[in-house]
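QUALITY CONTROL LOG
STEP: pairwise intake check
CHECKER ROLE: data steward
CRITERIA: each record must contain a sequence immediately followed by its structure tokens, with no blank fields

ENTRY 1 OF 2
RESULT FIELD BELOW
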Amino acid sequence: MKRIYFLLPGIDTARSFVNDMLVARIPERHIHVLARRGTPLEELPEASMLQKSDFSPAAQRGLALGGGVAILGALIGLALSPGAAMMAGGVLLASGLGGAGAGAWVGGMVGLTAANSHLKAFANAIEQGQMLVMLDLPRTRVDEISARAHSLHPLAMPQGADPDIPVFP
């Protein structure tokens, strides 16, 4: 999946754009609209907390950091313990999994409180009243949908794409 971004000048244009994307068979759960705080989106699919926050990248960083630190700590503990070589594999596995889980949880909680780092580039436009529409598409449909948006919605300004994203957010 790839996420592509479009800036639209107002709610009427966004509504027309989203309806056309639904006609193009993009599921509603893959369309996310972000607007200035207090803007009534009515039936438009509003971006969830997962799209607005830095949850996923922070959880991934926490997973890697927590797992790495736990394994390093386990290696140091095993090196300092005489005769611990017989249970080294289990200790390393348990430490790594526990540290990775704890790191992912802490990282995710921190990420929920931080704004999505990918959306910082759009902050000024959103504050000026523009609407950001994010589409999560299979890579094979990115060019097709971009061309459709360009031909049917000349006011929709394409803003690029993210690298591949996980399917679940």
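ENTRY 2 OF 2
RESULT FIELD BELOW
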Amino acid sequence: MARVAFREADVNLMARMMRAEAEGEGKQGMLYVGNVIVNRDVADCADFRELRSIRDVIFQVQGGNYSFEAVQKGNVFYQRAREAEKKLARKNLQGWRQHPAKYALWYFNPYAPCPPTWYDQPFTGQFKQHCFYEPQAGTCDSVYMG
């Protein structure tokens, strides 16, 4: 059973974001980015309280900027979704999750060692260049459900 409701348009949008954010980190890296996207849709807390769809997650604006850098920079994100990435997006949407992004709501590439916390959120692990962070215990229980 799917973790979130989705349509083919969501698959395409998510596939484009996964590729734009993590193509250089291969299929596994793109799946981890997909974990974060779905987790933000599921989460009903913090900065993600008002997000109700994959589209809401992808185009969320915080502090005057899009949450995902790829939306602002354009390049790969605005290219057509490829079948390989659509397959990965469907896998995430249907429930695939894995450490270090299993419950992560944030990731970034620090171009240095991963800090132990990021905006007070605990570090859960690193995959290639991306550091992943999940919410502090008790602050966002909804991300752990489903």
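INTAKE CHECK: passed for both entries
DESCRIPTIVE NOTE, ENTRY 2: Strands lie at 61-62, 65-66, 106-108, 117-118, 121-127, 130-133.
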